[in-house]
Queue: 2 jobs
Job 1
Amino acid sequence: MPSAETPIDPIRAVTELLARLPGVGERTAQRLTFHLLRQDAAYTAALAAALTQLTRDVALCARCHDFTAGGTCAICRDARRDQALVCVVATPQDLHAVEATGEYRGLYHVLGGLLSPLEGVGPDNLRVRELVVRLGESAPREVILALRPSVEGESTSFYLQKLLKPLGVAVTVIASGVPMGGEIEYADRMTLARALTGRRPA
């Protein structure tokens, strides 16, 4: 007779899934799993439902490409935002880092990454074309490049400056303050706010 399949160990299964999260090693994943086991059933059921809803209902904003639960995000829908100001960032995390400073009241455009030829990431792999089309239609007063101060970030910034110049739009870059090689999303609010308000022409 064929042997019965080995039953799945739910503790191991959850631990392995958690360990795949960025910055979470196996020990931390195991600690989180046992923490969940100590919670009441209502909490774990709510967490499972929230994760299901996250993957089912969240998509990219049709305009700026941030994550949103609707077709267009709340920032893009907000008529009080400065519609003639567009801040270009690499990721949704960077967008929310800039937004958390409270110093910026314009709109955003999320590229979805940075140029990195060594990793096979070229302009066609980013939302560069969408940016050009958007700027051509809306003719903003200023485009702020808030990209990571790294080789990839500088290359992307330089590429965008050349690409946007024929459109006649003013292009600025955030001032120094975020350390070279640093991540926009991890910069403290004060440093990022100063870099944003002290931006300079590209």
Job 2
Amino acid sequence: MVLRKWFVCISVVAVGLWGGAEPILPAGLGGSSEPALPAGLGGGVEAKAVAEEGISGWRLPDGLSGFWEVRGGVRLQHDRYEKSASIGESRLQLHYERPGERVEVKVVSDFLYDPVLNSHTPRLNRGSGVIDLRQANLLLRPADFVDMTIGRQIMTWGTGDMLFINDLFPKDWNSYFCGRDDEYLKGPSDGIKGSFFSSLVNLDVIYTPQFDSDRFIDGRRISYWSDGSGRRAGRDGVVEPLRPNDPFDDDEWAARLYRNVGAYEVALYGYDGFWKSPGGADRVSGRAIFPRLQVYGASLRGPLASGIVSLETGWYRSRDDKNGSNPMINNSELRYLVGYEQELAHDLTGGVQYYVENMRGYGAYRRSLPQGMSERDEYRHVVTVRLTKLLMSQNLNLGVFLYWSPSDHDMYVRPKASYKLDDYWTVEVGGNIFVGRDSHTFFGQFERNNNVYAAVRYGF
């Protein structure tokens, strides 16, 4: 409650005191503008070329772009709880944007047919069905020092590369593990974002009237470890959690205070809401729940030697289990991340990250743990490595992203290759490989979900 009141007060003060134009931030260190999408992904040269030149004499309406894609994948081994196909869908994305000096309109919606889940009723908060509404919002500029974005939007902040500490916005882990494009890891939020700019410091405040959860692993597409059953489960044990769903009561607040100090961007973060994926179980029904959560964090990002260094930390305060004595609810945690990336050779870039989760109240957790339930480590360590190589006039993109946990003794590898055939067509192949010593660790639980996939995309 104290954090929520602080969010409200600081928003009101910001509106009254902030002035001046938005400062220009160094490339890659933030700002209010979204980065341009890569060629073939729904914007840039392709959309402009088609709009101006037309296809067979037909011109797209101004502000409209998108892509059509077919993507399919198969599992590399038998999983008794899931289908042999990991993904199989046809997707059409339409992106409409109407810029203006004081008001901008943006709508991004995907229309898809997915025979793997075979569920076609639209469920917008879960991203299932024939329609996935990605964005539908208004950007208002009531003054030179403030932007207001109202509606469904995709939000992100923090410094991690596919690791998230202070980014408490929805993620779609099913998309990530089954082979969809990386952009689908981020799920949409329904809320209001206010951005306030000054020459001294900048502030983002985000209010979500009704809790937006992750699109978490629930067994419909990816099998998982079930502590309740003591085994892997999937379509035979679909997770149906008790969701916080009272508007304005089960709401979320998030804030970021940031500025540049020399060539470095420093930021402070706050969040008041719920664990984004199920973080506990109801004692009576046994159903998964989303306990209340507060997060306080900080980050720094800037140049070091020939590359870019990132530092981030966060204190996860589990409000429903403050002393760690309830084994049915996630304990509080301290999380840390350090990363470094640089160009290793011509058109070859590399990055490495070291991430730690430190469970608080570990002694109380162990004493209260029911017999037979899998025990978590006090410290979980994860190392990531990313390598990207561009070839053939940068039309061929070869990449690999590796997660390795020396504490969990498991690993996750994401190889991918994409080739741009021309200004419109792109082909892609890749895989998701999980290896683990134990069946209950984070990546080890998914070892029956190893898959390869291929995609063809037409951008317009």
